[in-house]
Write a structure and sequence with these properties.
By secondary structure, this protein is of the alpha/beta class. It folds into 2 domains: 117 residues, Roll (Urease, subunit C, domain 1); 302 residues, Alpha-Beta Barrel (TIM Barrel). Helix content is 37%, strand content 20%. It is built from 13 helices and 17 strands. Strands 1, 2, 3, 4, 5, 15, 16 and 17 form an 8-stranded mixed beta sheet that branches. Strands 9-10-11-12-13-14 form a 6-stranded parallel beta sheet, with helices on both faces. The longest helix is centred in the last third of the chain and has 24 residues. The N terminus is likely disordered.
């Protein structure tokens, strides 16, 4: 047993040293087909020079630069590292057990999050926006651990907690009286605009990168209805005022049309779900330039697996009432040219399956290139990041490679062959 432990430690040390070495060296990546994430052109014969975690140059291939290592991806399609704008890495995942989040300690939740992060990175998602956890600030802990190099995972931008009304769609309802929930499960609960502003400041002071609000009821929350508004316009405006004053963005969980309109009128930057958006609501989003993050894959997963596993009938009913409506709204949003980012709600289904949504986005109106850009260049714009999402000089050297051509078959992205994050080959 001692020898096994020694061999494991030696292998772990070797992998650590290899990663450190790889991050310091210059790479010259020869691509077969190159999709840069910002233009519609698929280029061939291009080489990407990577130096100090960043892309230094993209140009027709030639002689390997002095001191660089040539990486042969000439038989592959190379794309920017993928971005998922709606994940829940720092949480346990959805199940039939309503009490699961309270049964797990913050430490256990963070360890589960570390596993989720590794799986997500291996699936080709090198950046994620993590939009809330029941155990408040666990996502901050996970992000910091990834940034330090303690655990492998994507770049994370985190919300810290849900900003929600008491007993609203961001609370763990139906387990114990909400007032008896642990304090870290109610960090974002606010009953007034003043409380909403104070909770916003608290989360930003404690490491949140952006703010996630709950503007309507939720599908996967007991006692709330997706079409019903929750946070008021006044509360939402108070949140937006504090966040924007600090240069931070605000997104709103909102299914129903009134709740979506409330959030847009309050000045939020993006809408999660938008399941019941009507024509007037979509036109308002287009007029204001509000981004939509619509998780149009997981409705099928909830209906299938949730039914088999005995999830609450309330969940299943609300999922049936929103799934087809959301896909209709998505198709119309594409037709209108509304800003749409790739967002899956990973955690409702197992992490690592994020790329299954691409086929749904194509089925409901996008071209394969539009779907890819929604998860690369366009996603980086929604996040306000100029350092990820594209294979252009100056950005982080986050890239994925696949054998098949995703423009011909978007499902190719469900089987990523190679992943690079910051110039380090992950797989």
């Amino acid at each position: 047993m001692r020898r096994l432990r020694q061999r494991h430690l030696i292998a772990l040390l070797a992998a650590t040293l290899a990663a450190s070495s790889a991050s310091a060296q210059t790479l010259y990546v020869e691509t077969g087909r190159l999709i840069d994430g910002v233009t519609d052109t698929v280029r061939t014969g291009q080489c990407v020079t990577v130096e100090a975690e960043r892309i230094k140059a993209v140009a027709p291939c030639g002689k390997t630069p002095d001191g660089a290592t040539r990486l042969d991806w000439s038989g592959l399609t190379v794309l920017p590292g993928l971005i998922d704008l709606h994940t829940h890495l720092a949480d346990l995942g959805q199940s039939a057990d309503l009490a699961a989040p309270i049964k797990a300690s913050p430490a256990e939740t963070a360890l589960v999050g570390a596993r989720n992060a590794r799986v997500t990175l291996n699936a080709g998602f090198t950046s994620v926006r993590d939009v809330g956890t029941y155990r408040g600030l666990t996502d901050v802990t996970l992000r910091n651990a990834i940034d330090r190099g303690d655990v492998p995972g994507p770049r994370m931008w985190v919300a810290g907690a849900y900003l929600t009304i008491p007993k609203g769609g961001g609370e763990l309802n139906g387990v114990v009286p909400n007032e008896e929930l642990p304090a870290d499960m109610r960090l974002g609960v606010a009953a007034t605009p003043e409380e909403a502003a104070a909770k916003t400041a608290y989360l930003l002071d404690h490491g949140a990168d952006f703010i996630k609000t709950i503007a309507t009821g939720a599908v996967l929350a007991i006692g709330t209805e997706p079409g019903a508004p929750e946070l008021t316009v006044e509360q939402l405006r108070a949140i937006v005022k504090v966040a924007h004053a600090r240069g931070k963005r605000v997104t709103a969980h909102a299914h129903g049309a009134i709740g979506i309109q409330n959030a847009i009128n309050a000045g939020v930057d993006s809408i999660e779900h938008a399941s019941l958006a009507d024509e007037a609501t979509l036109q308002l989003a287009k007029k204001r330039g509000t981004w939509l993050a619509m998780d149009i894959y997981n409705g099928d997963y909830i209906d299938d697996v949730g039914t088999k596993e005995g999830w609450p009938e309330e969940y299943l009913r609300k999922n049936r009432e929103t799934t087809d409506a959301q896909r209709t709204a998505f198709r119309r949003a594409v037709e209108l040219g509304i800003n749409i980012g790739f967002a899956t709600d990973a955690g409702v289904y197992p992490h690592g399956l994020n790329a299954r949504q691409f086929a749904y986005m194509v089925r409901y109106g996008m071209t394969p290139m539009q779907a890819i850009q929604a998860a690369t260049g366009h996603a980086s714009v929604e996040m306000g990041r100029a350092d990820i999402g594209a294979i252009v000089p100056g950005r982080f050297a986050d890239m994925v490679a696949v054998k098949a051509d995703p423009i011909a078959d978007i499902r190719a992205l469900e089987q990523i062959d190679h992943v690079m994050k910051g110039g380090v080959i992950v797989r």
